[in-house]
Amino acid sequence: MRRLDLAVLRRRPGASRDPLMVAAGIVLGLLCLLALVAALVPFAGSPTEISGPRLSPPSWEYPLGTDSLGRSLLPRLLEGIGVTLVVSATAVLITAVLSTAIGIVAGYAGGWLRETVMRVVDVLYAFPAIILAILVAAVLGAGRVATVSAIVLVTVPLMVRMIAAQAATVAHRDFVTSARISGVRLPVILYRHILSGVGGTLAVQGTYALSVGILVEGGLSFLGQGVQLPQSSLGLLVQEGAVYMVAAPWLLFAPAAVLVASILSITVIGDTLRDRLEPREVRSLA
Q: Is 245 helix (H, G, I), strand (E, B) or coil?
C-alpha cells in the first residue's frame, strides 16, 4: 500500500491517541486549573501585596522572584494567566456566535447576500491584526472592553469565511434538499441541518481564534492599550519584564514562557481537531 489516508490512520486503535495532543491538553488544562485555583484560593499570596525586596531573584520564598515594587511574581503570573484566558475566551465566544449566525445565513442564502458578506469580510481581513486592534483600542480607550472588541473584530472575518463556505457546501446536500422540499421551516433547516454540518469547522476555527486572541491581548497589553494596572495579564507582565530584561531576566522569561506554551498548546489542539474533523488530505507515506 503506497498511499494511506491520514484520517484512516488516526482512527486505527493504535493511533486513536495523539501523544502531542495529550501533552498539549495537559499543559493547557494545568494552566487553566492553576489560574482558577489561585483566583478562588490565593495560595501563592496576593498579586498586589509588596512582600519582599525589589527585583529579588527566584528563591524558596519567592519561586519566580519579585518585581520592581517588591511584589512576588508568582501570584501576578497566575492572575495574568486567568485574565488573559478569560478575556480571550470571552471574545472568542462572542466571535463564534456572531460568525456562526452570519456565516450560516450567508452560506445557505448564497447569491448577492453571500457576496456582500464576503466582500465586507475581505476588507476587514486585509488589515493587519495588530493594526486593527490598535485602531479599536484608540477609539474605545484602553481596557478590557477594547481588548475584547479588538479580538472579536480580528477573528470574525476568517471564521465567517470558513463557516459560510462550509454552510454553502452543506446546503447543497441531499438531506437539506429533501427537508426543503418537504416544507420544513427555514429556521429548523438552519438549526438542525446546517448548524450540525458546520460544527467541525466551528471547533477548528474556534481554537485558531483563541490562539489569535491571546496574541492580540498580549500585543495590546504590551503596548499599554490592553488590560490596565493594577490587574495583570501575560502581555502586561511581558511588557514590565522587558524593561528589566538585563537586571532581572526572570521577570520576562516566566510570563513569556507561559504565553508561548499556551499558544502552542491551543495550536496543537486545533491542528489535531482539523485532522480528525476535516480529513481532506491524502498523503503519500511511501
A: coil
Residue 241 sits in which domain range? 3-46+63-284
Per-residue confidence in pLDDT tens, the chain, 286 aa:
334 344 444 444 444 567 888 999 999 999 999 889 888 887 777 888 887 788 888 888 888 888 888 888 999 999 999 999 999 999 999 999 999 999 999 988 888 888 999 999 988 888 888 888 888 888 888 888 989 999 999 999 989 998 998 888 888 888 888 888 888 888 888 888 888 888 888 888 899 999 999 999 988 988 888 888 888 899 999 998 888 888 888 889 999 999 999 999 999 998 888 877 765 543 333 3
The CATH number for 78's domain is 1.10.3720.10
Q: pTM of the prediction?
A: 0.83
**72 SS3 class:** strand
Tell me whether residue 51 is in a domain: no
Asked, for residue 57, whether it belongs to a domain, the answer is no
Q: Establish if 53 belongs to a structural domain.
A: no
Number of domains in the chain: 1
Helix 73-109 × helix 144-171 angle, to 10°: 30
- Coil, strand or helix at 283: strand
